């Protein structure tokens, strides 16, 4: 399970407890986490840290669940390796993907100046929404707004550029080469990654199903934890995966959740 930008792996806590006991679950802590490396955005290689945690999972991560910006990092990693003649999915032993609230546009023409203005000038609102969902509306609106701006400032201009560069590259993704089964989950009320983008991404993948959760925003794993877990279980079980490959906990940015 791979968290998105300015989050951490606690984003999965409500859902993990709803998964079957037989599932072995790992979560990653990546440089772009809420407590991550301050200057991660100055490094243009975001795929590298993700590749290292995928490689560190004992036996390989059969299913990767990636949220928000990290879904884009994952697709970018697979695409880049494919263009070099490799197969990242096979290399890491990945048999299925669950892409949660992904950012995706089919054509370059879908990006305009209004798009840039929205994601630049309202970027703090996305950070604020994450705080609201995590806190369960316990934080006063004024405090939440101030904290959202602080998180935005911690991400910084370079971090924002890395996010938006990934987004801008999505029309160039060779999605036809991502042949493993995929579940693309979006939220009906997601103003960060509009639900139409989840539908468009699923349509561009050879073997994918889109599911938009009614009344849900950018964080289905928190806002609709039971539905999120149920749909994930249905997807995982449909793949007929074998027994989990257990092994020692590696010395990486991974946590063996159970």
UniProtKB/TrEMBL annotation:
Residues 1-230 form the AB hydrolase-1 domain. It holds the Pfam family Abhydrolase_6. Residues 239-258 are annotated as: Disordered. The keyword Hydrolase applies. It comes from the Bacteria. GO terms for molecular function: hydrolase activity. Keywords: Hydrolase. InterPro entries: AB_hydrolase_1, AB_hydrolase_fold, AB_hydrolase_sf. This is Alpha/beta hydrolase. It comes from Streptomyces viridosporus T7A.
């Amino acid at each position: 399970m791979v968290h998105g930008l300015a989050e951490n792996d606690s984003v999965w806590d409500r859902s993990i407890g709803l998964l079957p006991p037989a599932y072995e679950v790992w979560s990653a802590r990546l440089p772009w986490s809420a407590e991550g490396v301050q200057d991660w955005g100055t490094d243009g290689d975001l795929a590298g840290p993700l590749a290292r945690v995928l490689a560190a999972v004992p036996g390989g991560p059969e299913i990767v669940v990636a949220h928000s910006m990290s879904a884009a990092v994952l697709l970018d990693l697979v695409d880049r390796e494919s263009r070099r003649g490799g197969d990242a999915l096979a290399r890491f032993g990945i048999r299925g993907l669950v892409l949660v609230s992904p950012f995706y546009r089919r054509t370059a023409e879908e990006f305009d100046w209004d798009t840039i203005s929205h994601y630049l000038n309202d970027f703090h609102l996305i950070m604020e929404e994450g705080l609201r969902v995590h806190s369960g509306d316990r934080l006063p609106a004024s405090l939440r707004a101030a904290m959202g701006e602080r998180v935005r400032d911690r991400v910084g201009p370079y971090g924002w550029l890395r996010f938006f560069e990934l987004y801008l590259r999505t029309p160039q993704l060779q999605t036809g080469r991502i042949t493993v089964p995929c579940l693309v989950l979006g939220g009906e009320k997601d103003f960060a990654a509009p639900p139409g983008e989840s539908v468009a991404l699923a349509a561009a993948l050879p073997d994918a199903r889109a599911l938009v959760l009614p009344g849900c925003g950018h964080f289905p794993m928190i806002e609709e934890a039971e539905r999120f877990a149920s749909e994930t279980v249905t997807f995982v079980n449909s793949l007929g995966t074998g027994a989990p490959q257990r092994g020692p906990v590696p010395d990486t940015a991974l946590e063996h959740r159970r």
